[in-house]
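Dear colleagues,

As part of the handover before I leave the project, I'm documenting each prediction I ran so the next person doesn't have to rerun anything. This entry is a single chain, and its sequence is reproduced below.
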Amino acid sequence: MDKLEAAEIGGLPIPSGWTKPGEDPIGPRPHWQSPRGLEPVTSARPQQRPVTGEGAVNGFTVLETLAALTVSTWRYSWEPERLRHLGPMAQDWHAAFGLGDTDTKIDLVDANSIAIVAIQALHRQVNDRQQEVAQLHAQIPAAPPDPAR
């Protein structure tokens, strides 16, 4: 299969060797996959369009939403009992973040972006706490020398 219908992937050609979900010779998979595994997601500025009416992303809100998200272990219905995955259910993810166009899949670009934003928020929190600790340490008077030493 060298090319898929435009409705399926937005008119972009798919290289030979790629498999459609459910057509993989080693078993069904829930995503498009190349012979090398999952392919990188295009995220270059020329391919992106701004979403009008959206403000800046509040990393602390994203972090709080992510922290409240239920995460569980699970397996696909076609996988053997011994396999397991870890993560949220797509329906919960979609309800929490409203990203993507379906509540049955989590787009990797969105999952990666949520992780990056949450890491940035945690980084800011750690830096803020380090500054607070440094300020508190500066307020503590130096202890007098111990005469017993």
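The two ends are 82 Å apart (CA to CA). The first strand starts at residue 72 and ends at 74.

All the best with the project,
I.
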